[in-house]
Amino acid sequence: MNRARRRRVLAAAALAALSLGALGIVPAAAGPAGPAEADPDPVTQAAPRAVTGEYADRFLVMYDKMHDPANGYFSAQGIPYHSAETLLVEAPDYGHETTSEAYSFWLWLEASYGQITGDWEPFNNAWDTLEAYMIPTTENQPTNGAYNPASPATYAPEHNHPSAYPAQLDSGVSVGQDPIGAELRQTYGTSEIYGMHWLADVDNVYGFGAAPGSSELLGPDYEGTSYINTFQRGPQESVWETIPQPAIDDFSYGGPNGYLDLFTGDASYARQWKYTNAPDADARAVEAVYWAKQFADEQGAGGEISGTVDKASKMGDYLRYSLFDKYFKEIGCESTGCAAGSERSSAHYLMSWYYAWGGALDTSGPWAWRIGSSHAHFGYQNPLAAYALSTDADLVPASPTAQDDWSTSMDRQLEFFQWLQSAEGGIAGGATNSVDGSYGSHPAGTPTFYDMAYDEAPVYHDPPSNQWFGMQGWGVERIAQLYHQTGDERAQSILDKWVPWVLDEITVTADSWQVPSELSWTGAPDTWDPDSPGANTGLHVDVISHGQDVGVAGAIARTLIYYAAASGNQQAADTAKALLDAMWEQDSDEKGIGTVESRADFGRFDDEYQPGGDGVYVPEGWTGTYPNGDQASAGVSFLDLRSFYEDDPMFPEVQEYLDGGDVPQFTYHRFWAQTAVATAMAEYDRLLGAGAE
């Protein structure tokens, strides 16, 4: 079936689904069939395997555990949870929320399953579920038609501490033109955004009921997934300081203005919808589809996933919003009075921290807005996705300028890694086009990258965003994939320096293993000169702790596997194998791969706000109510806003700690981490083991 015909068929299917929604036929269990209905024992299936080998067998065992309903990785709707366990606070503030990250890793998991078994139905089902539950429907974003690309949003500054919020809207600050909005509308015949919102309350534990297919809050009786948000108030706002709110705010809960006046200052407030995209997740989804296409084409089964490939291409088209400054200001901006951008003068071409869009719920007085982001972190970059979206004929987006944008982005992202590589080999934080989130002037001596200021810890500071080693694994793994696929010399040069640094920090013995956990940084990179890159002799990194984060270990193993397969480096191959063997032999359990974690940070459950410090900041005089009756007001703690945790079967150990007892210890099974290990097993056999040529 050709691409045009496939799109007509997909459009017809979408219209049919929307017709059901318009009739109110949206039961809690509606949507694509859940993974619980899949073959419960893929290892012993009757159909012949496409790939065999010891590590492929291990992948299938882990896959089977993750799809076993008894292990709790998926909801009744077939939605992947952030973790199998409920009591977990990190970026999501509850284990049974889901993220666009989890969906993107699920696609990865199913791509490997298709490669090993030749069965592509679960892969297509994963995208269908993503589309049903994580991409807002027409009803969820009803006033996009009023969006004006010439006036994309009203400026509001970011602030460095939650206590400085709400941030006042300021129409006196000029904003640039959105250069892709009209093109996207013309290409797809709609003003809607085809991108994932980043966070959803799968079990509606908060009770908002901001549901797919609805433009109003359905409340605590709704038994299905619900769009929510948390982070909204600057780099110091850790998850422990967030105020959860619905993505659709019709003023049913919160204060008189819902939750809006906690975040944005305005003369009056309108009921509205608003969504935030995590570009690294959408890019990872494209990355997974790219690999699935390679595998399926090798099997002569490319036609079985062609519809999903088309949808990934479309997602990549909208993902370009992450390549632009937040308010489409020119790159190199150092004051709110700097020039408003036009065409590509506002494009930094990096994968920024987010893009966002929103608008009015009232269709009789419609308005809508869109923003990009000024902040770029190396760990969000995905040059492999940019490569796919600029070179693969089936993935190049349909918009006329998309291929050039992604081609430029691939080169810019590689340069970004080169610019940020320390003397030891680790990759430093990132850059911003808006110092302090308010287009401040660059501090004296600040190095720049295409006129953007170096930022040691982009976006968040509690803890610093470049402290967790996982960002290294995520970011550099994509460099290794690109090197493996293309032989790019820039990618090889980055890896030739990064890999030895990491290998020296990994320990594997007969009864233990450890990988880097936390990093500290000193100095800064040289100002970037693409014609003569600096050596960054003044930028340094130290590994300050090691641990047993299975997801990080899986990402490291995958990086080493791609590098070894392309370079022939035997130490990288041996270390990847040793890590995978150690986790398999030492840490396998009934749910997958698990290690014990001590969570001293759980002492923040009952922290109350301290002026200028930690704790949940609620302005004096502001009060609001949650669907379950929890009250938000000055002096509340994280737990006060989430009293449901007190009924969690895991909470007694936390309460004992809050009462002065020992630090609680838990074994977690995060969806992304299990996938990272499982797919590393699959890739080992494909590239270095039984499946390697």
UniProtKB/TrEMBL annotation:
> What InterPro entries does the entry give?
6-hairpin_glycosidase_sf, 6hp_glycosidase-like_sf, Endo-1-4-beta-glucanase_dom2, Endoglucanase_F_dom3, Glyco_hydro_48F, TAT_signal
State the source organism's domain of life. Answer: Bacteria
Q: What are the entry keywords?
A: Carbohydrate metabolism, Cellulose degradation, Glycosidase, Hydrolase, Polysaccharide degradation, Signal
Would the keyword S-adenosyl-L-methionine be found if you checked this record's keyword annotation? no
The region annotated as signal peptide is: 1-24
Statement: the UniProt record of this protein carries the keyword Signal: yes
Which Pfam families does its entry note? Glyco_hydro_48 (PF02011)
Question: What is the name attached to this protein's record?
Answer: Glycosyl hydrolase family 48
Q: Which organism is it from?
A: Promicromonospora umidemergens
